[in-house]
């Protein structure tokens, strides 16, 4: 508190001397600049009391951005590994298809898991669809509404 009062006193004296020493028209501008500086110094404890710390704010922002990027890359890798595992499980069950799992983010920031099954041979039968859905459900817990079935593009 005493350091703040000391800075105010020094600022007031320096501003008064600068305004008095300024010639003619510049005197008004020097007084205005001094008043502004005095006001800023006078209000500086409020900024300190509010706990505002620009460096901590920026560090926190960088940490959140890094964590978000890490989660995104990590989710991509896990989705790729899971897709490979599900495709292999389908092949062992006699299905000729490729299963892709993806994690999408909604506008509200909620992550949603989806799966798509691409069949190598023509239109899949209902039994093939049911078997693929069962394999995906056992591993991921996805409901059939979140599983897309399609033919392989040629």
Describe this structure in a few short sentences.
With about 150 residues, the chain is an alpha+beta fold. The chain has helices spanning about 1-20, 25-50, 55-90, 125-140; strands spanning about 95-105, 110-120, 145-150.
Give the fraction of residues assigned to helices.
Answer: 55-70%
Give, in order, the helices and strands.
Answer: HHHEEHE
Distance between the termini: 77 Å
Q: Describe the biggest sheet? A: 3 strands, mixed
Give the strand tally.
3
Shape: rod-shaped
Structural class: alpha+beta
Poorly predicted parts? none
Percent of residues in beta strands?
Answer: 5-15%
Average pLDDT confidence is 81
Which secondary structure elements does this structure contain, and how are they paired or packed?
Elements: H1 2-21, H2 26-49, H3 54-92, E1 97-105, E2 111-119, H4 126-140, E3 147-151
Parallel strand pairs: 2-3
Antiparallel strand pairs: 1-2
Question: Could you characterize what this model shows?
Answer:
- With 154 residues, this protein is α+β, with helices and mostly antiparallel strands.
- Helix content is 64%, strand content 15%.
- The protein has helices spanning 2-21, 26-49, 54-92, 126-140; strands at residues 97-105, 111-119, 147-151.
- Strands 1-2-3 form a three-stranded mixed beta sheet.
- Helix 1 (2-21) packs antiparallel against helix 2 (26-49).
- The longest helix has 39 residues, at 54-92.
- It starts with a helix and ends with a strand.
- The model has no long low-confidence stretch (mean pLDDT 81).
